[in-house]
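Supplementary Note 3. Input sequence used for the single-chain structure prediction.
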Amino acid sequence: MTVQLLGAERHHVDMTMPDDQPLGDAPFSIDFFDVVLVRPGSIDRDISGRGTVLGRARGDDSEEFYAVYLDDLGETLMIARSDLEPTGERHGREEFYDGLASV
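The predicted structure, written as discrete structure tokens, is reproduced below.
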């Protein structure tokens, strides 16, 4: 899986795994497997559309970033929170993982 950081300047990003609680930081505003819309024209590449959150991280300045699997591209990109709009929908974990790997 290729992950690219888009929609923000270069940041040091600390990855947070699904069951980890970030120390000293507020909770993330979007959860794993939530469906999001990428705002048109808001990131470096001309990308928009629906995707699913598969990972999340927080930069040194506490800005949130999300690893979003984009349905139309079949790629996962790291996108700033400010470039995403939650839909209120959520996919099941089993739609992305076969159950053989643990998180």
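The mean pLDDT is 77. The CA atoms of residues 51 and 70 lie 4 Å apart.
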